[in-house]
Amino acid sequence: MKSFKIPSVPATTNKSVRFPNDVIKDIETAIKGKDCTFSAFVVEAVRVALENLKEEA
User: What global pTM score does this model have?
Assistant: First the structure.
């Protein structure tokens, strides 16, 4: 299983996604003081989730 690491800001394309308020708060707490945006954090989390799914198949 791949470890989650807070990423640096990559080049991105804009997408709109709704998040529960508690998840937003938890993400903002996790990235506070780090060189990471909300979007970059979510992208890395999705990449890790997708990689884990591939490993389970």
Answer: 0.73
